Amino acid sequence: MEQAVEYQKKSAQNPVATERTRNRKVYVPKADIVETVDAMVLYADMPGVDEKSVEVTLEKNILTIKGGVEPEAFAGRSICYAEYDVGDYERAFTISDEVDRDRIEAAVKNGVLKLILRKAPQAEVRKITVRTE
């Protein structure tokens, strides 16, 4: 009789907080992660950022995304009321050894950062052909 094997997902560890040198609000961008056969795709909402104002770094197993949006200046006008506020974005993810660190791709469009985290060859599912003898 076979025993059922129970697996537990290891929870991600939070990286050490970073020191801030700017006195601005910091937002944690909401993210969606979708897994495909050969990659994990991360979408992070960072309204107002473009390719010049976003930074993606990978150090050890910590993938960090940062971005900043400068307030819009109106010539000859000042804002007396605003419901939308700008600031910096920052979020970190712990990635596993299943990610091929040399094949990570990043793109930003309309304030959405898209990261393609390709799976390492040993982590990809491969089909074994069975033959008869």
Walk me through the structure.
- Residues 7-16 have low confidence and may be disordered.
- The protein has a domain at 26-72 and 82-123: Immunoglobulin-like, CATH 2.60.40.790.
- The radius of gyration is 20 Å and the shape is elongated.
- It contains no helices and 8 strands.
- A 4-stranded mixed sheet has the order 1-6-5-4, with no helix packed on it. Strands 2-3-8-7 form a 4-stranded antiparallel sheet, with no helix packed on it.
- The chain has strands at 26-27, 31-35, 39-45, 54-59, 62-68, 88-94, 99-109, 112-119.
- The protein is mainly β and 133 residues long.
Main beta sheet: 4 strands, mixed
Mean pLDDT: 83
What class do helices, strands and sheet pairing give?
A: mainly beta
Q: Name the helix and strand elements from N-terminus to C-terminus, one letter apiece.
A: EEEEEEEE
Distance between the termini: 29 Å
Low-confidence runs: 7-16
> Into which percent range does the helicity of residues fall?
under 10%
How many β-strands, per DSSP? Answer: 8
Rg (CA only): 20 Å
CATH domain topology of the domain at 26-72 and 82-123: Immunoglobulin-like
Helix count equals 0
What share of the residues does DSSP label as strand, in percent?
35-45%
Neighbour order of strands in the largest sheet: 1-6-5-4
What secondary-structure arrangement, pairings included, does this model have?
Elements: E1 26-27, E2 31-35, E3 39-45, E4 54-59, E5 62-68, E6 88-94, E7 99-109, E8 112-119
Parallel strand pairs: 1-6
Antiparallel strand pairs: 2-3, 3-8, 4-5, 5-6, 7-8
